[in-house]
Amino acid sequence: MAWAESMLVIESSGGPSIRYPWFDMVRIGVKGVSPAELPPFEESLSAFKTVHEAAMVYLNTLSDEYLLLPNKIGMNFGGSAELKNTLYHHIRHEAMHIGHIGTLCKLYGLETV
Predict the structure, then answer these.
(1) Residues 74, 22: Cα–Cα separation, whole Å
(2) What does the alpha-carbon distance between residue 108 and residue 56 come to, in Å, rounded to a whole number?
(3) What backbone torsions phi and psi does residue 86 show, to the nearest 5 degrees?
(4) For position 40, what pLDDT does the model report?
(5) pLDDT tens across 27-85, in order?
(6) What confidence score (pLDDT) does residue 21 get?
(7) Which phi and psi (to 5°) does residue 54 adopt?
């Protein structure tokens, strides 16, 4: 989620990139990574918080007019490359993964909220 928010919110809008070395293991197109290769959960959570805080601050600097410009990553979402559609995609993307995590928790007998 940290990589996705960095790419879909910050980089797609031309903001300052936030990168972690392990982002290349979790980006689009990566087939699979051994859990041993990934950072500890605490590091991932810290990265997510850092990226999210930066994204929220940066988004507040963008005008409504700017959101109508094409995104900077050259991707089309929902039939449009407008930045606002990229941001809409990210909102849906995050919510979808929250559902995945909830389902996995239930499958493995972990308590959810």
Answers:
(1) 23
(2) 33
(3) -65, -40
(4) 93
(5) 888 888 888 999 998 999 999 999 999 999 999 999 999 999 999 999 999 899 999 99
(6) 92
(7) -65, -40
Coarse DSSP helix, strand, coil percentages of the chain, rounded to the nearest 5 percent: 60, 5, 35
Cβ-Cβ contacts under 8 Å for 70 (sequence gap 6 or more): 81, 82, 83
**CA gap 82, 90 in Å, rounded:** 13
Reported pTM: 0.81
Distance of CA 112 to the CA centre of its chain: 22
Q: Quick count: other Cβ atoms within 10 Å of Cβ 30?
A: 11
List phi, psi (to 5°) of 80: -145, 145
- Rounded to 5 degrees, what are φ and ψ at 74? 70, 25
Please give the Cα distance from 83 to 76 (Å, whole number).
Answer: 9
pLDDT at 96 (0 to 100): 84
Q: Is the pLDDT of residue 95 over 90?
A: no
